[in-house]
Structure prediction request, 122 residues.
Amino acid sequence: MPTRRTVRVAEVLRKELASQMSQSLDLEGLLITISSVELPPDMKQAYIYVSTLNPEVDKEMALKLLNRNRVAWQGIIGRRLGTKFTPQLIFRFDEAIERGDRIMEILTELEQKNLDEDKDDK
Prediction:
């Protein structure tokens, strides 16, 4: 269970990283957003879950771009955080949005199938 401190640090990380990402020319046009930030209690790593609003974005390429800028961003964020250690940023794509979209598709199909069956019964 996250502590108040890890939640606060995760939120500061998210805001600072979003600011740095928005200024990065490497990421221009990719529409990458930070879904969430997870910190273990020791705060040695920060798991940054990202997603994109553009389904045609190559996820591997996007992760390479994020990782290319990782060290520079860690330095900037470390100076702003003022903590003893700066968490190592680990980027991962958040599949939750895609899973949610797929679930919505299935529910819509089931609803349509039920409507069609109701029409056949009448």
About this structure: Strands lie at 32-38, 45-52, 88-93. The longest helix spans residues 96-121. The mean pLDDT is 86.
